[in-house]
Amino acid sequence: KNIKKYFPIKGGILRKTVGYVKAVDDVSLNVLRGETLGVVGESGSGKSTLGRVLLRLLAPTEGEILFENQDISTLGNRQLRPIRRDMQIVFQDPYASLNSKMSVQELIEEPLVVQTKLSRAERRDKAIDLLEKVGLRPDDRLKYPHEFSGGQRQRISIARALSLNPKFVICDEPVSALDVSIQAQVLNLMADLQDEFNLTYLFIAHDLSVVKHISDRVAVMYLGRIAEIAPKKSIYEKPLHPYTQALLSSVPSTDVRHKRQKIILKGDLPSPSNPPSGCSFRTRCPKAHERCELVRPELTEVGNGHYVACHLYE
Ligand code: SF4
Ligand code: MG
């Protein structure tokens, strides 16, 4: 609820705070048990920061984070520890996120050592079971990350994230670093695991095509704010926000009924330390008008769980 995450910018010889990067600027959303909420935006839109704040890997500057009705936004590390079991993250880069000096067995069992009292044999059995569930072989646990391909490493990251039977998993661009040919395999695996483990996903991606199949709802972020959030069908068939329309126009469609003219956005993403007044998208919006410069549009429901922040729909 109303999450903000501002990073101070230091300047001058005194290293005083001269401004803030408003990475997340007043975001409210809910994630329903068992669903996948896709979160899409360009780099710099604040989507990864939002994910880290929701898991309390970063403290919010403002706002409340309710996990199963418990406010976790101000808890200290000690109080967060039992809750961390239930919330995990799979990072974008399986090369950077796995410690290369640890064997696969050690990587998968590390959370179990920290958080459970399982015996060595129980941890080994658990690792074998998880490796099979992610499509690797039991013997793979004796190997090291560099012995695997990118896709296999991401399978190891997923096994590690699932070792504590979490309820909520944030997937931060888990397939972006992988070859296109294996992206679908990993996405399908994640969808299967979601059913098997009753997982709830917040699935971060930088374009709408990646989250199309896995999401139940999709949120589109721009400069730290939500531009539009809606059930999947509405976002892909009836996008309302001019930014969503532009993003979608670059997704190749096989369906002739949904062929769209490609919309090219002018200019670059403005700096999140100095966002435009009014609607932050106005400098690139093909439909910007006078009001857009003066008044910031609020996220408003236009029907059936479809919310949009744009003056065209008020
Ligand atoms: Fe474009 Fe104005 Fe809507 Fe912003 S509020 S998306 S500038 S039309
Ligand atoms: Mg990111």
Which terms would index this structure?
314 residues, Rossmann fold, two-stranded antiparallel sheet, 21% strand
Coarse shape:
globular
CATH architecture: 3-Layer(aba) Sandwich
Strand tally is 12
Percent of residues in beta strands:
15-25%
Radius of gyration: 21 Å
Bound molecules: iron/sulfur cluster, magnesium ion
CATH topology: Rossmann fold
Characterize the largest beta sheet: strand count, sense, and whether it forms a barrel. 8 strands, mixed
What is the typical, i.e. mean, pLDDT?
93
Tell me briefly what this model is.
One of its GO terms (molecular function) is ATP hydrolysis activity. The protein has 314 residues and is of the alpha/beta class.
What does this structure look like?
- The chain is of the alpha/beta class.
- The protein has one domain (3-86, 166-313): Rossmann fold (3-Layer(aba) Sandwich).
- Helices cover 32% and strands 21% of the residues.
- The protein has 11 helices and 12 strands.
- It has helices spanning 47-54, 77-84, 94-97, 104-115, 120-133, 150-162, 180-197, 208-211, 232-237, 242-249, 290-294; strands spanning 3-11, 16-27, 36-40, 66-67, 70-71, 87-90, 168-172, 200-205, 217-222, 225-231, 300-303, 306-308.
- The strands form 3 sheets. Strands 6-7-8-3-9-10-12-11 form an 8-stranded mixed β-sheet, with helices on both faces. It has a two-stranded antiparallel sheet with strand order 1-2.
- β11 and β12 (306-308) form a beta hairpin.
- α4 (104-115) packs parallel to α6.
- The longest helix has 18 residues, at 180-197.
- The radius of gyration is 21 Å and the shape is globular.
- The model has no long low-confidence stretch (mean pLDDT 93).
- Bound molecules: iron/sulfur cluster and magnesium ion.
- Iron/sulfur cluster (SF4) binds next to loops.
